[in-house]
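User: Sequence in, structure out. Go.
Assistant: Echoing your sequence, followed by the structure tokens.
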Amino acid sequence: QVQLVESGGGLVQAGGSLRLSCVASGSTSSIRSMGWFRQAPGKEREFVARITLSFGIFGYADSVRGRFTISRDRTKNSVFLQMNNLKPEDTAVYYCNSDDVWGQGTQVTVSS
């Protein structure tokens, strides 16, 4: 079984940056890709970005492409989300995901 733990959320002003981290533990040999989702108050959870661990193939939601960058460290079973030029609409709880496993979430708040 895989466990995911996120870190790096916080409060930032619009235009600022944050870097989220997610570390996987447990049966990590089964992991093929890891990604990030987010859920704002009163809204559905939505896809943000995903990356494959072996080849680093990635994809982004249109709303974050060009501002967010996903990366991974295979040796540490970790993925990162560098978020630049943050906007108030990026405010949400950000969740790390792999298959049907979810982290506990980390709050990102962007003030205007």
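User: And one key feature?
Assistant: The chain has no helices and eleven strands.
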